[in-house]
Amino acid sequence: MGKFSARGLKFNIPSIVDGLFGLPTPAGRQRTWTIRDNYKRYSAAQAEPERRALKYITYNTTLPMAARVQAQMKLSGMPSNTRMTMVKNRCVMTGKGRSILSKFKMCRFVFKEMAKRGEIPGVRRANW
Q1: Are residues 93 and 46 part of one domain?
Q2: CA 124, CA 111: separation in Å to the nearest integer?
Q3: pLDDT digits (tens, 9 = 90+) for 55-112
Q4: First to last CA, the chain
Q5: CATH number at residue 55
Q6: Strand 3-6 and strand 9-12: pairing?
Q7: Cβ count near 76 (within 10 Å)
């Protein structure tokens, strides 16, 4: 794989996606979505301290209005990928974005199959 560069950050694609829990990466379009989602997670994590500080300044009513407006303008000028709301939970096995069990980071189909085979510690199919 080649290098992936976005907004001045350069990193290898396999180092982002292939390192997730040592599981195989999805193929095709799901791989692209997974890479994009991981980049959004990385960007949000890097900008989180600055976003929190700016939000604190914005909502602090004891500060002068000029400082609060300046913080709000700087906050609105930040890239949209730095917001945690842009991050979507995806299955680490298939890359699907729906019906994700967030505790296991898997879609329900993969979870069901792995539970049936006994590959998830502490999880069994119900029998009664």
Answers
A1: no
A2: 11
A3: 898 998 898 999 999 999 998 888 888 888 877 788 877 778 888 888 888 888 888 8
A4: 48
A5: 1.10.287
A6: antiparallel
A7: 9
Higher pLDDT, 34 or 8: 34
Residue 5 has phi, psi (to 5 degrees) of -125, 130
The span from the CA of 39 to the CA of 41, in Å, is 5
Burial of 43 (0-12, 13-18, 19+ CB in 10 A): buried
Q: Which two tokens stand for residue 29?
A: 């379009």
At residue 115, the 3 state secondary structure works out as helix
SS3 112: helix
- The pLDDT of residue 118 is 82
Residue 68 tokens, joined: 């609060």
Whether residue 124 lies inside any domain: the answer is yes
Look at the block and give the residue holding tokens 């085979």: 117
Give yes or no: residues 114 and 81 share one domain: no
Residue 46: give the domain boundaries.
9-88
- Name residues whose C-beta falls within 8 Å of residue 43's C-beta, 6 or more positions apart in sequence: 7, 9, 79, 81, 82
Total domains, the chain = 2
- 41 and 102 share a domain? no
